[in-house]
Write a structure and sequence with these properties.
Order of helices and strands: EEHEEHEEEHEE
Strand content: over 45%
Distance between the termini: 28 Å
Helix content: 10-25%
Length: 184
């Protein structure tokens, strides 16, 4: 209820050229509201960074986006992620014991929620956070950081071997290729 209403849709179709060969396709949209952890997670940890050849401990704060600390760093309220999915596949089944399918897909996600970078704080920001009761040298928060596109092709072949007394074994060979691209 924090993120209002949305309409998601899905459409699928399949066309059989023959009993052994068919083409299928799907297009859909999706929605994912930020999780409670992404909205309200706060912790301070000690990370080590090499500064002038010395391993130096730095207190690093992770702040909920609605806190004064995160707002001082530029955090804004999280928006829901929205996705569009497309797939197209070809299935070949010349007999009951052999099947091969080739599926290509694309998934676009807008407003992907990720951690911000660990932000090194200048003395003014450190003083501002210290006035709020927080003494850290670096900080981060969840943000709608990026739009992503994942594209890939899956090829799967299965051969079924039938044995005596109803026993069987399925041998499957699969090749999955995917690539993730992000636009900041």
């Amino acid at each position: 209820s924090d993120f209002g209403n949305t309409t998601s849709a899905k459409g699928s179709a399949r066309y059989a050229f023959t009993d052994a060969l068919s083409l299928r396709g799907t297009a859909s949209s999706g929605f994912r509201a930020p999780s409670l952890a992404q909205q309200y997670y706060t912790i301070t940890t000690t990370n080590f960074q090499v500064i002038n050849g010395t391993n130096t401990p730095i207190e690093t704060g992770t702040f909920a986006v609605n806190t004064p600390q995160a707002r001082a760093l530029g955090a804004q309220d999280l928006k829901p992620e929205k996705a569009r999915n497309y797939s197209l596949g070809l299935q070949f089944q010349p007999n009951r014991n052999f099947t091969t399918s080739i599926d290509a897909y694309r998934i676009d996600i807008d407003n992907r929620i990720l951690f911000s970078a660990n932000l090194a704080l200048n003395s003014a920001l450190q003083a501002q956070l210290a006035a709020q009761g927080t003494a850290v040298g670096a900080a981060r928060y969840f943000t709608n950081a990026v739009d992503t596109r994942t594209e890939g092709v899956d090829v799967v072949s299965t051969f079924r071997m039938n044995f005596a007394q109803g026993a069987r074994a399925d041998l499957t060979l699969a090749e999955l290729r995917a690539m993730l691209r992000a636009a900041y």
